[in-house]
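Budget justification, computational time. The allocation requested in the original proposal was used primarily to generate structure tokens for proteins on the priority list. As evidence of use, we reproduce two of the resulting records. The first is shown immediately below.
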Amino acid sequence: MVASWRDEELLALFVTRRRELVNYARAIVGDRAAAEDVVQDAYFRLERAGAVKMDDRLDEPVGYIFRIVRNLAIDGRRKMVRESNHVGIDENSMTDAVPEDRPDPEAQAIARSELRLLEQILAELPTRSRIALEMHRFGGCKFSEIAARLDISVGTAHTLVTDAIEHCKTRLARER
């Protein structure tokens, strides 16, 4: 479809006034993304209406476009209110319906108890084994780094970490 002069004029009006239109709609709907949608809908409605609406008798085409944006924004706002009333949640408490990311108090208490148990089990380990395990598991160190720090061979570092992990697994299984 080849755009007529009026289509080009309509597009030029929307492009030059886009920021104003979005800000105007945003003041009504309260959300920038929704305001962008309103302005886009207004353009498509006017484009579909074609030259019938944008004829020579239209004295204020910019005012006409703002009026359409205003009407669509008000309709959108009403729809949001209706939907929030239908669901039974007001707009300001929408975030209250989102579950929290943190565990419940019972899970927190269990985790604290397990952490205390793990600290006790780690305290039972020989010093070099505990340090090797902590460096590997908590510090992310490689066996070569552990070996250099503890002045032992890489094989010995591997054995210390493996034995320490086995000790922890055995003790945790016994306590549970």
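The second record produced under the same allocation is shown here.
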Amino acid sequence: MEDKIVTLDTFMNFMQAEIALGKLQTAGISCFIDENGANIYPLQTDALGAYKIKVFERDFEKCREILAQSDEAE
């Protein structure tokens, strides 16, 4: 069975995406930042929200919980 990769969230700037990515990786989640939109439209990156965190579909709900908990703690 193949694991589908899905978009967990989209961010307006790279630093926000990097912070969320770090929280997920610290929790042991395999994930990465897809920057293709930033490379295709470099002048419109912030407007398009070109930084997308990608995760395996099986981890999607767990990732949402991790990010929600960290948002509550801040």
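A brief technical remark on that second record: The chain has a mean pLDDT of 84.
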